[in-house]
Structures are given as structure tokens and as C-alpha cells.
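> call design_seq(struct)
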């Protein structure tokens, strides 16, 4: 499973260091070439010999050990690694890397790395919640470093809270996920719309819908993970965009239309996940509309249909749309696929539990231009996103 992969495990000084022994053992059993770097404090908890006996490689504990190999080792291991896992990661190592300090073999190797670096924090709950530690984690995460959430429960120091070292099994699953990532979108450019649009009525009111942006953001994230250049045109949502995407925030359907039409030509794949309002107010009041009478009527006019406009000009680009339905799912979705000249439509019945707006899962059917369809069971929006990207590649090749 991990044959041919080089994993560097950085062990820091914390009581959870002994659990890193099992982590190294599991990685080794899966076929990885495992190298261990221990900090000076880590060796106070576990003897380097324990790791050496399991990983069958020298364990590095000191940069200046004789024979003095550090100047090549920190570069060679950093270049050789497919992944560096810092487990347990103390507040100290997180702070050092966030602050750009490289004063021992582990911090130096992390600084010189080309590979992804996964931190597995384990520390007292108050330390973990400390705004300085959280600030360092956020800074590193925004730079592309990966973090596993610690478990919650009883800790060695006697307190109960968030900061426990996750099970070695869970860490290995995470590692497998990172190392098995495909890079089949390298060189491809994908434009994704996400979230709702807001159509103003007056300065304080608008017409919108329940889209949270989760489905569209999942597509953007999956494409980034697989190596694509991603532009995410997003309506107003409360979730954080995946790091690495070019993000353009818009409000109304017209804003979204303008942004998409301005740049679609330079993209290979267009995935329209946004729940775009079909209508906007014929006129928007400049001041807040005052309450009067028992009825109030708003006149609406049609918005441009972004997906339909793209369908007219798409050329060889792959165009994927979504269809949010409450009835006649397949018939309605098939009509949209044809009328908007899409290559594939992802139909979801938004009345079904676990599907559609706001939730972390979706239940979708793919309908393709050739009439074929694929029914998927309930799955996370991330997994749906990857299945969409798999299909897009097969359409592109077809
Ligand atoms: O954001 P989440 O909370 O995760 O919810 C996900 C979702 C339910 C929003 C998503 O799964 C979904 O179904 N998105 C499409 C919603 C929708 O507006 O569907 P529609 O059937 O009205 O539109 C059909 C297609 O045309 C869509 O690709 C839509 O982006 C596009 N469209 C629609 C109207 C318009 N004026 N311009 C468009 O581009």
C-alpha cells in the first residue's frame, strides 16, 4: 500500500512519543521506507534504539553527531521524503516552524522539505487552545501545512479536553489518504461556481436561497488536490475557501455572470454548482422600503442563465451543471442538461435527508449527454466531488 514511499516521522518530546512507536511500526508494515528524526526532548521519553529496531534505518537525534552528516542529511531526507509526519507535534515545534526557526534536525528538515508536512498535535488542552498556538496553526495551515485534529478525552496530565494524540490507526489512514492522492488534473484549469446569489430588494433586504457553498467548495478542493488550477467564483457563504484557489467573491447573479463570462475562455472544465437566483428585482429601492398596507408586491425580471450562456460558447470545454430538484428529478435534470448544452448534470433531490443544501453529504445521480446515468449512494460532498472529477476526465478523453 505504501511501497516505494518514504515517510519521515518527526517525534517531539511529549508523553505521546511512545505512541509514535506504533505509528512507525504500522507505516513500516504497509511497506513505507520510514526514517525517524527525534528532538532532544523526545529521546527523554523513548530510546532511539526502539525506533531504529522497528524502522531499520538510523534514527537522527543530533545535527552535530559525528560523523558530521547533518549538512547533507537535512537536505537529503527533506528531498527524499514523500511525506513528513510530525507526531506528536508539540506547541514548541509548531511555534518554531511558524516563526521560521530551524535550530535542530527536525525543524531544519521541515524547512527544507519539498513534500507535504503533516502535524499531529498532542498537548495539554489549555496549551492547544492557547491563541498563540492556534494562531501558529492557522498561519501554517494557510501556507499549506497539514494538521490532524487532536482527540478529546482524558490526558496524561489528568485533565479532560482536546489535545490527545489520535490513534496510530487514524494517523495511518490520514497518511494513506495524502499519499494516494491522484495528480490527474495537473495542467488543467477548472472554473467552479458555488454558493447562493443575493438579489437586493432595498439596502437591507434581499432574495436568496439555502446554499451553503459546501458542494461547490468541495469540488474546488478536490480539483486542487488533484493538481488543477482552480478559480472559485462564490456567492456569499460562511465557510473558508480551500487554500490555493483563486477566489472571487460575488453577490448577485449578474456579478457571477460577469465574472464567469470574463474568464471562462482560459478554462478546460466549467462546473456550475452555484444556486443562482433565476430572477432579480425589476428595480432596487435606494432607501429602505417602509411598511405600508397588508400586501406588498415585488416585480421580478429574469437573470442571465450562466450555465446556458456557457453552453452556447463552450467549444471543447467540459461543462458540468447541477440540478436541484424537489420533484421529477431525472426528467427535470435531463431537460436542463439538453437545454443548457451540458456534458453532464449532477441531479440532487434536495428534499431527501442527507442531500442538497447545507449538509455535509449528498445523494446524486449523474446524467451524461449520451443518455447514460450513474446513481450514487449517500456520500460526503468531498467524495461526490472526486466522482464528478473522475467522470469529467472520462468525458474529456471520450
Ligand atoms: O451549497 P450547498 O449547501 O452545499 O448545496 C448544494 C446545492 C444544493 C446548491 C448543489 O448541490 C446544487 O444542486 N446546485 C445547483 C442549484 C441550482 O440552482 O440548480 P438549478 O436546477 O436551479 O440550476 C441548474 C444549473 O444551472 C446549475 O448548474 C446552476 O448553477 C445553473 N444556473 C441556474 C440559473 C442561472 N441563472 N444560472 C446558472 O448558471
Amino acid at each position: 500500500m505504501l511501497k516505494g514511499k518514504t515517510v519521515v516521522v518527526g517525534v517531539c518530546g511529549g508523553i505521546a512519543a511512545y505512541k509514535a512507536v506504533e505509528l512507525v511500526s504500522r507505516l513500516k508494515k504497509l511497506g513505507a521506507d520510514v526514517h525517524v528524526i527525534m528532538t532532544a526532548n523526545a529521546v527523554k521519553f523513548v530510546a532511539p534504539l526502539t525506533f531504529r529496531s522497528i524502522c531499520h534505518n538510523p534514527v537522527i537525534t543530533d545535527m552535530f553527531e559525528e560523523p558530521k552528516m547533518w549538512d547533507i542529511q537535512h537536505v537529503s531526507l527533506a528531498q527524499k521524503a514523500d511525506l513528513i509526519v510530525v507526531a506528536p507535534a508539540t506547541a514548541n515545534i509548531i511555534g518554531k516552524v511558524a516563526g521560521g526557526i530551524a535550530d535542530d534536525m527536525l525543524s531544519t528538515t521541515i524547512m527544507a522539505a519539498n513534500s507535504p508536512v503533516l502535524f499531529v498535535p498532542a498537548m495539554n488542552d489549555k496549551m492547544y487552545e492557547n491563541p498563540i498556538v492556534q494562531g501558529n496553526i492557522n498561519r501554517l495551515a494557510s501556507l499549506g501545512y497539514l494538521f490532524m485534529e487532536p482527540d478529546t478525552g482524558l490526558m496524561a496530565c489528568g485533565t479532560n479536553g482536546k489535545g490527545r494524540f489520535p490513534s496510530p490507526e487514524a494517523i495511518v489512514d490520514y497518511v494513506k489518504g495524502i499519499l494516494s492522492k491522484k495528480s490527474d488534473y495537473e495542467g488543467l484549469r477548472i472554473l467552479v461556481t458555488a454558493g447562493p446569489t443575493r438579489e437586493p430588494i432595498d439596502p437591507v433586504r434581499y432574495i436568496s436561497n439555502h446554499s451553503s457553498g459546501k458542494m461547490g467548495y468541495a469540488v474546488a478542493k478536490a480539483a486542487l488536490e488533484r493538481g488543477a488550477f482552480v478559480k472559485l467564483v462564490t456567492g456569499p457563504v460562511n465557510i473558508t475557501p480551500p487554500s490555493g484557489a483563486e477566489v472571487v467573491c460575488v453577490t448577485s447573479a449578474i456579478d457571477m455572470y460577469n465574472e464567469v463570462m470574463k474568464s471562462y475562455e482560459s478554462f478546460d472544465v466549467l462546473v456550475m454548482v452555484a444556486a443562482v437566483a433565476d430572477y432579480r428585482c425589476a428595480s432596487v429601492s435606494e432607501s429602505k422600503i417602509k411598511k405600508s398596507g397588508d400586501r406588498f408586491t415585488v416585480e421580478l425580471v429574469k437573470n442571465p442563465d450562466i450555465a446556458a450562456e456557457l453552453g452556447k460558447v463552450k467549444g471543447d470545454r467540459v461543462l458540468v451543471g447541477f440540478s436541484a430538484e424537489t420533484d421529477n428529478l431525472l426528467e427535470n435534470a435531463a431537460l436542463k442538461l439538453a437545454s443548457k448544452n451540458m456534458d453532464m448534470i449532477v441531479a440532487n433531490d434536495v428534499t431527501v435527508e442527507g442531500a442538497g443544501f447545507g449538509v455535509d453529504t449528498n445523494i446524486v445521480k449523474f446524467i451524461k449527454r449520451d443518455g447514460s446515468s450513474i446513481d450514487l449512494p449517500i456520500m460526503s460532498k468531498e467524495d461526490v466531488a472526486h466522482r464528478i472529477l473522475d467522470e469529467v476526465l472520462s468525458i474529456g478523453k471520450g
